[in-house]
Design brief:
The protein has a domain of 215 residues: Alpha/Beta hydrolase fold, catalytic domain (Rossmann fold, 3-Layer(aba) Sandwich), CATH 3.40.50. The termini are far apart. It is an alpha/beta fold. The strands form two sheets. Strands 1-2-4-3-5-6-9-10 form an eight-stranded mixed beta sheet, with helices on both faces. Helix 2 packs across helix 3, helix 5 crosses helix 8 and helix 6 crosses helix 7. The protein is globular. This is Pimeloyl-ACP methyl ester carboxylesterase. It comes from Cryptosporangium aurantiacum. InterPro entries: AB_hydrolase_1 (IPR000073), AB_hydrolase_fold (IPR029058), AB_hydrolase_sf (IPR050266).
Length: 313
């Protein structure tokens, strides 16, 4: 059954934010990745909206949302999404984040634990240093002209060229050529290209990812977490997510062997049943000030699990 969806534009302190909303019930806030838009969630919205209020937003400067005054940090994006939820009349939500959106979801939970019910991380950033050379290159001097050129390449040509790059080690997965081509098309617009570059430089440099959630993970130990990734991801190494799953043994996890960096686009039929099961079998987190004080001061922190890979350097 198709659930009617509506597109909207709502005023917030950072400018107008564009969103798609569908369904009724507990809110799910879907957060796209770097250079993407809310369109990336088109394969999931209808299914999730059967028993939830699904809100898919364009981050500030992305898609049809206004550019912010200048702050493209994870914290600024998290605050903008908080304002969006409040503007739409929701006090809390389950956060579903892909790639950069996963890092924003983790930051949101750290800044606003009282507004966070659960977290679903899909090929999440912020869990280690390694990242594809293509994104590291976007932080180098002169990258703006190169990215602008990529955005002007016709989509049809891009889809023919990207498979050739997939044979190079550590660049992109063949499964991801279509969604990457769509993201590149969006970079033809100066506003979105500027958001891509400025956001990238807040979390990545020429060596890799510079922002890590590692120190804050113990604060989220009691928050229901679902972690999913593709075995063939060449954008963010699968071992980041495998290590996180070992560090949080209570977390639900799913590795999709046929997927790359975009399992929600290329393998939704494998992802959706697991997400529905996670939502059905877990209770929303309930913030407690005294418990949060214990976690912040280390008095209630969980012991570090043994035999795990480090999440960040």
């Amino acid at each position: 059954m198709t659930v009617p969806a509506a597109d909207g534009l709502i005023a917030t302190p950072v400018g107008n934010l564009a969103y798609t909303i569908a369904g009724a019930g507990e809110p799910l806030l879907l957060i796209h990745g770097l250079g993407g838009t809310r369109r990336t969630w088109r394969h999931l919205i209808d299914s999730l909206a059967t028993d939830h209020t699904v809100i898919a937003a364009d981050l500030p400067g992305h898609g049809h949302s206004d550019a912010p005054a200048g702050d493209y940090s994870l914290g600024a994006h998290a605050s903008a999404l908080r304002d969006l939820l409040v503007a739409l009349g929701h006090s809390d939500a389950t956060l579903v984040g892909h790639s950069l959106g996963g890092g924003i979801a983790l930051q949101f939970a750290y800044q606003f634990p009282e507004r966070t019910n659960r977290i679903v991380l899909i090929s999440s950033g912020g869990l280690g240093t390694e990242v594809t050379p293509l994104l590291r290159a976007a932080t180098l001097p002169g990258a703006a002209a190169f990215v602008a050129g990529l955005g002007r390449i016709p989509t049809g040509l891009t889809r023919r060229v990207l498979p050739a790059l997939s044979v190079l080690p550590g660049v992109i997965a063949r499964q991801d050529t279509r969604p990457i081509a769509e993201d590149l098309r969006g970079l033809a617009h100066p506003r979105q290209r500027r958001a891509f570059l400025r956001t990238a430089r807040t979390v990545i440099d020429w060596r890799g990812q510079t922002v890590s959630a590692s120190r804050q993970l113990s604060l989220l130990a009691e928050l229901p977490v679902f972690i999913t990734w593709g075995s063939r991801d060449r954008t963010i190494p699968p071992h980041h997510h495998q290590a996180l799953a070992r560090r949080i043994p209570e977390a639900h996890s799913l590795e999709i062997s046929t997927a790359g960096h975009y399992p929600h686009e290329t393998a939704p039929e494998q992802l959706l049943p697991a997400v529905h099961e996670f939502l059905r079998t877990t209770q929303p987190y309930r913030y407690d000030e005294e418990r949060w004080r214990q976690l912040v001061t280390g008095a209630g922190a969980l012991d570090e699990p043994k035999n795990t890979l480090p999440l960040a350097v």
